[in-house]
Design a protein that fits this description.
alpha/beta; STR4-like; 9 strands; Oxidized Rhodanese, domain 1; Rhodanese-like_dom_sf
Length: 138
């Protein structure tokens, strides 16, 4: 297995724009989707797939994660881009996807919000928001 490669948010956007079978899977929690926002893929005619890697509030790993990928209609031939807050959970989710038979798994580097800046705020240094890609509040 080649491992899960990091891909920039801009390169992810480009892949989602060009490849009809490519999908973005947001593996954050329900609370993060509701209070922080989600990537908006309407411009490329898609919707982000929401499957938590860890279940809030216990933060236990979602034991049905691979099953949820399949139920979402994702296929082993599809390029799957995993995103979380900063890129750690999405890397683990990508590794689990590869182990479950989805070899084309990628990690969105910097995640949705990226690391904290000098003032302790996210969304400014790196990640989906910092790169100015579309997002919305739910």
């Amino acid at each position: 297995m080649p491992g899960v490669a990091d891909v920039t948010p801009a390169a992810t956007w480009e892949a989602l724009s060009q490849d009809p079978a490519a999908a973005l899977i947001d593996v954050r929690t329900d609370a993060e989707w509701s209070f922080v926002g989600i990537p908006d893929l309407a411009e490329v005619g898609k919707q982000v797939v929401l499957i938590p890697w860890q279940v809030y509030p216990s933060m236990q790993v979602n034991g049905a994660f691979a099953e949820h990928l399949r139920k979402a209609g994702l296929h082993p031939e599809s390029k799957l881009y995993f995103i979380c807050r900063s890129g750690v959970r999405s890397l683990a989710a990508g590794q689990a996807a590869q182990a479950a038979g989805f070899p084309l798994a990628y990690n969105v580097a910097g995640g949705f919000e990226g690391p904290v800046d000098a003032e302790g705020h996210r969304g400014q240094v790196a990640g989906w928001k910092a790169e100015g890609l579309p997002w919305l509040q739910r």
